[in-house]
Amino acid sequence: MFTIYSFAFCYWYKGCAPEAQYKKPDSEHLSITTAAASCPLLPPKECTMEKLLPGVLLLVFLSEGMTHSDLGGKAFIFPEESNTAYVSLIPRLKKPLKNFTLCLKAFTDLSRSYSLFSYSTKSRDNELLLFVSKVGEYMLHVGNAAVTFKVPPSPYAPVHLCASWESASGIAELWVNGKPMGRKGLQKGYYVKQEASIILGQEQDSFGGSFDAKQSFVGEIWDVSLWDRVVPLRDMCASCYNGNVLSWQALTYKDKGYVVVKPKLWA
């Protein structure tokens, strides 16, 4: 773990001193102070805590068992129904969302209800939730309010979903496999709160927990991205999954229970 921690810290720390070369400290037990001492310092006015903070946070995430990875070409597999298997996602950007675009791909043969993406805060369990209530009905929740989009039934196959919402108009939009499913309105003027627990595989009935196996996801999820703006979905390309809040190509996550990462079967 020394190599990961020291590299992570100095990667960010060298943002304060781009010309600096990392030197491994004598001790194999790395602390924040030790790591800082290993990277040459610039004067305090140039090397601010604001610049160091992302590196410190990355160390904390890694020390708590988080993984930071480019998952391009891979998928999370949830092999069986449970209330214990899930993936917790750590956003790259923490801020209130007055707009958002969420995209993901999934495959399941479930005929019951299930959660695709659960973003919960301490005040609202369904702060942002993409949920399938039954075959052919997708529900988008914002601030505990919800709208339902009816989707023509199709054979069991991978689905490509993109949902967007903007605060100014309250307009929510859903695209399925590159086709628009209409626009509806909810929570005009609302802001999605920032202190969130973001989970794949389970629907949160409380912040970070209260899972129900009968709402769990069974199948595969991949190419998850979240932006803090409305992305023109008509122009969304199949490979553009580098969201500034969540990016599949630079994802920090922690998996719990029976979750497997494997090469994806579909594009």
Automatic annotation (TrEMBL):
Coiled-coil stretches: none
Primary location: secreted
UniProt-recorded Gene Ontology molecular function terms: complement component C1q complex binding; metal ion binding
UniProt keyword Transmembrane helix, yes or no: no
Gene3D superfamilies reported for this sequence: 2.60.120.200
Subcellular locations according to the entry: Secreted
Essential cofactor(s): Ca(2+)
A Pfam family it matches: Pentaxin
Disulfide bonds listed in the record: C103-C162
Keyword Calcium: yes
Residues annotated as domain Pentraxin (PTX): 72-267
GO terms classed as biological process: innate immune response
GO cellular component: extracellular space
Keywords: Calcium, Disulfide bond, Metal-binding, Secreted, Signal
PANTHER family documented for this protein: C-REACTIVE PROTEIN-RELATED, MUCOSAL PENTRAXIN-RELATED
Entry's family note: Belongs to the pentraxin family.
Protein name: Mucosal pentraxin
Organism of provenance: Camelus ferus
